[in-house]
Each structure stands twice: as C-alpha cells, then as structure tokens.
Amino acid sequence: MMFRVFLFWAFVPVLFSLVPVSVGAQETGITKSIQQLVGEDYLYSIDFLFFSRLAEGELRLSETNQPNIYRAELVGRTLGIASWLTGNRTQTYTSVMELRTDGSLRSVEHVAQIVKRKWGKWKNRVRRHRYDYEQGTVLEEKFKEDVFHSRKERDIPEGQQPVDMLTAFYNLRSGVYGPLVRGAQFLIPTFSGKGFVDIEINVLTAEQQAKQNYFPAHGLLISANVDPEIFETGDGGLYFWLNAEGVPERGIVEDVIGMGDVRGSLDMEDL
C-alpha cells in the first residue's frame, strides 16, 4: 500500500485521455508538440507527515528507432527506511506509442512491472496491455517470475479510443484534447487492470486554487477523482499543479489510509 502512494506521479498521467464536457475561460495552460517534449527526464521526491524523500519517481519520454514510435517510462523506487519496509521495491511503467498524422499519440503497448525482495528472494510481476484499435480489442497478459500466468482479451466499447496513462499524459500536454483552461471539466475514458472506466477531471478556478495552501496561485491546479483502490485512499481524490511551462511540478493524494495526505514535488534541478 505504501509504495502505491509513493508512485503518485506514476498514476497521475492515467487521468488524461480527455473528452471535454464544459469549458470556463481565461487562463490557459501551455502546450507543446510531442517533438518538443521528447528528451524530458523529470525526477520527483515523495513526502508525507514529517518525513521527506521516502521515495522518488522518474518520468521520461524518448524516440525509438522506428518512425513515429515513441517510448515513455516512469520508474518509482523507495528510499531509506521505506526501501527496507517494501523490500527494495521498484515499479516501472513503460508505454510504446504511435504518433498519428493529426499529432496525437495512441497506445501500442503498455507494460507495468513490479520487482521486490520478499523473504530473501526477488519477486517479479508483469502486466502487459496490447492495443489493437482496428480489431477493437485490448489484450491483457500477466507474468510472474517471468512465467506466463494468464491472458484475457477485452473488447473496446463502441465509439471510444482509450489509451494508457502515459500516452494520455503526453496527449494532454501536447494539446490533443484542447486547451486546459480554468473551470474546464473533462470525462476521461481510460483502460486499466479493472477494465474501461471514466474519470472526471476539473481545472480549478482562481478562487478555488487560492484555497489550496500547498500550491502556488499561478499556473493551473487540477483535481481528479480516481478509483480509491489505486492509492488506497478514502475517496480517491487528488490534486496536481502545472507550472507556467506546463510541467507537473507538485501534487497531493488525499486521505491515504494510514498516512493522511501524501505530497509529491519535482526536484528543482530538473527545471
């Protein structure tokens, strides 16, 4: 449970396969093309209560050797006493994405891997999703200690084109779903281990943002409600803040069971 929360920045991107519901006006978040985002490599530290830097997460985007194919990776690892408590756990999320002619990315493959030590032995779990939009399916495969465990094919709901969390994140930042403006609301079709679900996103107004003391008054503050099981929270609520350059710099997962509010922040050397 603790490590899921440490990976707050790993799961925030899953919120952004966006379908606009309504738009308020004024301040708009910056957008960049996928080519401008390539080469980013951000490091985040995770804190809660009076403890600092109990874990770190790294998020990066790169080109592959194949034309129009990109690779996004997020790696989370516990540090110090948290590493000891979680068995030196490392959690990796990797997405292979195709850049389409309209400038959007769509998922080709998404792999989630957990490596940790338990009772002196290393454990390795892998979940892989392969997207086939032409056939309208997502293939889910699971492995344990590099041994095939299960396979399931899911039909994509008619009229939807869900993507994985990292693909959605970079689509959001490149303006695929339209500009982020104060007061905007979005419905998000996503795919995860539990299937196809919609999540609601709200871009806070200036008045709403001013009430959140952990975040600056400038930039854009976004709230979301996700499945409480993802972070083992009371209600699944979280906030994240995009700075003036559109970089996700701070975030909070609220009401984490046993820990209260958990905070994540970008290392300033990465700005």
Essential attributes:
271 residues, 15-stranded antiparallel β-sheet, globular, 14% helix, mainly beta
Q: Can you characterise this structure?
A:
This protein has a 15-stranded antiparallel beta sheet with strand order 1-10-11-12-13-14-15-2-3-4-5-6-7-8-9. It has one domain (2-270). With 271 residues, it is mainly beta. The longest helix is centred in the middle third of the chain and has 9 residues, at 165-173. Helices cover 14% and strands 49% of the residues.
Low-confidence runs? 8-25
Shape: globular
Quickly count the domains.
Answer: 1
Number of separate helices: 7
Helix share, percent: 10-25%
User: What is the SS-derived class?
Assistant: mainly beta
| String of helices and strands | HHEHEEEHEEEEEHEEHEHEEE
| Main sheet makeup | 15 strands, antiparallel
